[in-house]
Predict the structure.
Amino acid sequence: MGNKTPTRPSSVHSSPSSTSSDDTVNRSFNGHAKSKSPRKITKQKTRIEDQDEGGGEEVLPPLAQRLPISILYGLINAAVVLPVMMSFGTIIYHDPVFSPYLPTLIKLTLVSSMVHQLCFSTFSSLPYSIGQVQDAGLIFLSAISSSFALSSSTDGWTHKELLATATIGLSLCTASLGLGLMLIGRCRLARFVQYLPTPVVGGYLAYIGFFCGQSGMGLMAGAEVKSPREWGKLVEDDKWVLVLPGIFGGLFIYVMVRRLKHMAVLPTCMIGILAVFYVWMWGSGMGISGARSRGWIGDAEPSGDWTETWKYIDFGRVQWEALPGQIFTMISMTLVVALSSCLDVAAIELELGKKLDYDHELSTVGLSNFVSGLTGGYSGSYIFSQTIFTLRSGVRDRIAGFTVAILEGIVVCMPFPIIAYIPKLFFGSLLVMICADLMNEWLLEVRKKVSGTEYLVAIGTFGLIMVTGVEWGILSGIAIHHALECVCGKAGEEGSEEEKEGLVGRKNRKKNNGERRSSLSYEGEDEDHFFDRMMDESSRKALSPLQVVENTL
């Protein structure tokens, strides 16, 4: 559910976790299993307490020994998340009316990412965790900002009133989301949130991919595109010349990331795109001003001191009457982000090899969102792929996370607007890559891992969201799922013995062929395959994501 940049896993093997209070997993800095008995503290070694039910301890090398590698992996994580976070800022404010103000609005996104990372690095029970603005709440925030833009055009708001309403309105929604998540966690209600059917989740994730791709093409063309019916705007006035390089770039990155499966692939490709663009720009004699006039680089207002990041937050200009209409969207966002966060925790739990407290982690996500909202930021959660990457690298302290936050703070404090010098195809390529990844995974590859009925629910949810919107599309998908479950459930129980034997035979063949690995062994498996296995566990069953994870464990 987070950014799932495939990585080449290391050999991490763990013993099955237990609910026993003395069942702990102790690992050294290089990731190999250690004795389960607690060790005494020496002058040369320090320890951290894992905040889990077992209360286990983990022995760490001296600070001088682990500091360089922790900072190194913090730099690697920052290189991956920074361009993605900036592209997320363009998604939240994808309406063209916000385009001149994107440098400051993207800085707000980076501030929010920094706040999330600081909160996760400080309060999470997983010291190596990476938490940023996440895609699960992205669609809802974008819908809210677009709603404000529409109200501004119909009711005659000034630009300052629109910016104040959008920035404060989104911040209040994020803070309210945080309170809702903390309430769910404190009341131990995470298990109820997790019963959203898996096919419905798949349809929603596919729509996130579609939305990112469509927004990326609109960004590159400098046109407002809200549905496939408006794709004609992408080719008007030769705008296709601006769009095609980003599409090819995004697909190239997607293919390279999937084939090479290494953390360095994404940042290397992004640097390559910038290098090729600037070589072409200077070689053609175009220059920055020429590239901006031809639409390759967006127009942007000058960026002042970093303290002006919050200059649009003006409570006196907020159009408060526009906020109550977003309550339903905010409630839907709370449920979807709660479920997404639980699945992120499930992925980390499987890799870690011991039980995590979902309610505690959800409370941590809630606290992070609450603080982010108070500082003018947006919704976020664990980025499970980066967290697992940091875990596999042997990092067991909080230094890597703080390094990511510091680098994001440095970018925010730069005295010039970065977006004013980055071509639009840079962000467009990232968004097209996300589109290809999510739509291929949840519309094509998922077909082999679920029953025909579940696949129809996933496709139906995707289509309904496009027609009716995110909130009603998800609700309709849930209703369709339970209706088909009632109709097909009884028929499934009366199925022939031959069908049952066929299913058992397939499972036995998979087991005999070694295709079903231990859920705690990731030898030769990346994060994409983790979700493949979870979906495979739910094949021909109507299981919630929580049940799928529990069965996998």
Residues 3 and 102 are 22 Å apart (CA to CA).
